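FAQ: What does a multi-protein file look like?

Like this. Sequence, then tokens, then the next protein.
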Amino acid sequence: MGRLFGQLTGRSLRLSITLFLAFILSYIFLGVLAFQFPETLRVMLRWAADAERFLTSTGLPARYNNFIEIYLNKATILLVFLTVIARIVIAVLATVASESIRSLNPPPAKHAGVRKMAPAR
């Protein structure tokens, strides 16, 4: 039971750290786009506005479409896209780091061991 709890705690901690880093990294991406690549940000905002128009004109009943119009705007769509990109970057970097550390400490080789001979009859 203790080992399972430790595994669940470790996984949830890693997931929380990844989500937090993706959140921060997405805003860093947004800042870099705004100051270094303003034309690219403008294009991305236009794509987000097109996606917003597409999603709000799906013909859903008003009770559902109202929530889509309230919670969905071009800034939200852009931040979700940047967060997905940030999660991909974090996953690639974490995999590279994990494999690098793992290659420094390879698992011990399994020895065949000495087999005992069966007693003669």
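And here is the next protein:
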Amino acid sequence: MILSTTNTIETQPVKNYLGIVTGETIIGANIFKDFFAGIRDIVGGRSGSYEKVLREAKDTALKEMQEQAERLGANAVIGIDLDYETVGPNGGMLMVTASGTAVKI
């Protein structure tokens, strides 16, 4: 399946628009990861633990969106938009949503 943030796939005309598809995930941040990430942020380093959680959340949301598109008979999703939000008490959870248009090319 082709996944693209663009509204078209070059040299691949859209034959059918099958509808909007979405994928969502919410991941909680571990208190120990938060503590060590804070220390790294103070010394100016990158927070590997947050980067890993962010990557996992994005991958999960995209996978859910792709599975929904496959159920509709799509072979591509175009116009993908990724949104990142913190939710929960003190912003302790990360929500990632992926949305796009399922198409047959």
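Q: Is there any per-entry metadata?
A: Some entries carry free-text notes. For the entry above: The CA atoms of residues 32 and 49 lie 10 Å apart.
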